[in-house]
Structures are given as structure tokens and as C-alpha cells.
Amino acid sequence: MSANDNSSTAAAGAPAQDINYTVRYPNQRAVFPYIDPKKAPAELAQALKVLPFERNVLKLLAHAEGFFPPISQLLGTIFRITRELPTLEWQLVVLRTAALIGAHYVFEINTPVALVNGMPNAKRLLIAFGKVDDTEFFTVRDRILLRYVKELVEDNTASDGLLEELRANFTTREIIEVIVIVGLYTIFGRVANVSRIDEDPEIPGLLDSLTKLTGQKDRGE
What is the Rg, in whole angstroms, of the alpha carbon atoms belonging to the chain? Predict the structure, then answer.
């Protein structure tokens, strides 16, 4: 039997064998099992501790175990102010990205991050419904940023006119950081969507944890 014959048989029959440090939950909707941090190898288990609470999307992304530790490290640097982009603008980018790619899970898990850092709920809802031209809640800088995210997601570039506005209002570092953030949260959104992810269980003390993790007093925030 050839290698191609084996592939055909596997595709038509049972799923290929997954790693054995996973867990399935009662009434689970996700089509893939979750990585169990308690059973995972040390490097993977450590990478899953990037946040002080568990998130289902990370326990799914960890299946790409060769990629996951550096991705986890990148997420940690974005949370822990090694970025120049201010916290609320970071969250504008995240929420806008999630809304544009239809990643409801990613939008919802980032809502507390936005709210605990002072984003009005009305502003969050405007992003959810794509009403991002509102001048009451969105500053000129906000609106430029939100247009930039849309062009990145839909066109994979920025138009000449928008690029001119970006360079007049943002540093080069901030402009490039947005590309990285959109890319990372697009990964999260696609993992969530493809896997039919389950909503996260309630996290006790979540807002206090987020305040300690993301609260910033720099850059006028």
C-alpha cells in the first residue's frame, strides 16, 4: 500500500491521532480537544501561563506546539506595555479586527480589557456594529486608526492617502505595531472560528487581574 493509500484511508476513517495531553469538557462544542496545562510538557505549560488566567483560544492554539511559545511571548509583550501604542488604542485595534473577521469570541474576551481601561461601552458597541465614523466617541486619531485596521484586514495594505494621515499622526513604531497586533489577533480569531470554540468559563476576579496586568499611567492614560 502506498503512502497516498494510507492518507486516503486516514481521511475516510477515524481522525489522525492527536497528542495525549488534551482534555474534552462536558457538552463541549469545539471540534478539537483543549490542551490541558496540567498535563502538557513543561515548555508548553509555561507558555500557557502568559496570562494569569486561562483562555480557551490559547489552549487550542497550543496544539501548534512548535509555534506556540513564541506566539505566547509576543502576546505577553503586547499586554505588558512594551508597545508604544497606548492601551485603549491597542484595544481599538483588537476589537475592530475581531469585528471585521467575525471573531465574536475574540471580541468578547477583549471587552473586559477595554472596559477596565476606561473605554465607554457605547464606543465598544459602535465598533461591534461598524459605526466607526462617529465623531462624538472617536477622535480624529481613533478614526484614522480604525480605517487603517480595515484596510489591513480587507486589502492587506494601506492606501497612499491613509498612509499620509498615519505618518502625520502616528510614529513609525506605532504604525508597525498595529500590523503586528492585527496579525496576532487575526490568528486568534481564525483559531476560534475554525475550532467552533467554546465560551470561556467565568473567571473569578477577572477585572482585578486585568487592572494589574494592563493598567497604565504612561502616555496620559
Answer: 19
Give residue 131's region: left, alpha or beta (phi > 0; psi -120 to 50).
Answer: beta
Q: 123: which 3 cell numbers?
A: 464606543
User: Which residue type, as a one-letter code, is found at position 9?
Assistant: T
pLDDT one-digit tens code per residue, 69-108: 999 999 999 988 688 999 999 999 999 999 999 999 999 9
| Amino acid letter for position 199 | E
Identity of the amino acid at 46: Q
Q: What is the mean pLDDT of the chain?
A: 90
Q: Which of 91, 75, 53 is nearest to 205 (CA)?
A: 53
Q: What are 195-215's pLDDT values in tens digits?
A: 999 999 999 999 888 888 886
pLDDT exceeds cutoff 60 at 8:
no
Q: Where are the beta strands (DSSP E) in the chain?
A: 22-23, 34-35
Output the pTM of the full model. 0.88
Domains and CATH numbers, the chain: 3-78 (no CATH), 84-220 (1.20.1290.10)
Q: Where are the beta strands (DSSP E) in 105-213?
A: none
| C-beta separation of 221 from 87 below 8 A | yes
